Amino acid sequence: MERENKKAIEQIEYELTTFIRRAVYKDNSENKIGDLERAVYLLLRQLEEFGPARLTTLADSFKLDISTLSRQASAVEAKGLISRFSDPSDRRGSLFQITELGKEKLLADKRMRIQRYQDMLKDWSSEEQKLFGELLVRLNEAFID
């Protein structure tokens, strides 16, 4: 049993490494889907789903240091996709929120990305797609632990 488990883990490691390489290649190639870079897309998705947030909260959720996320947020803010405002519970702090332009850009990219995955998984059953999604959630959560 342990030998089978080791072989399965080796396959998972290899396939995930390959998948990540291919996904990064796609995102950086002329075949890129949408206009938003991956980091911008994830930031907008986070703000859309969970609402306004402090920089420290965002950095923690992405497991990035605050200076990295601060540079990213400043660049995204300069493009008008997010805005900053004073935190009503603590005027010394700021919250970031997605703007209407950010919502429009996010929706357009999200539609294209979803279509890409629908095309890639078109031969999978609904049950397989559902299970794969659930397993990806578990894997992402395991990275956090």
The number of helices is: 6
Strand content: 5-15%
Q: So what's the overall shape?
A: globular
What is the terminal-to-terminal distance? 26 Å
Q: Percent range for helical residues?
A: 55-70%
How is the largest sheet built, in terms of strand order?
1-2
- What is the number of E strands? 2
Instruction: Outline the biggest β-sheet.
Output: 2 strands, antiparallel
> Uncertain runs with pLDDT below 50, 5 residues or more?
none
Mean pLDDT: 91
Element string (H = helix, E = strand)? HHHHEEHH
What's the helix and strand layout?
Blueprint (H helix, E strand, L loop, with lengths): L1 H27 L9 H13 L4 H8 L3 H13 L3 E6 L2 E9 L1 H21 L5 H19 L1
Antiparallel strand pairs: 1-2
Helix pairs in contact: 2-5, 3-4
Protein model, in words:
The chain has 145 residues and is mainly alpha-helical. It contains six helices and two strands; from the N terminus they run ααααββαα. The chain has helices at residues 2-28, 38-50, 55-62, 66-78, 100-120, 126-144, and strands spanning 82-87, 90-98. It has a two-stranded antiparallel ribbon. The model has no long low-confidence stretch (mean pLDDT 91).
Quick overview:
With 145 residues, this protein is mainly alpha-helical.
Highlighted features:
2 strands, mainly alpha, two-stranded antiparallel sheet, 145 residues
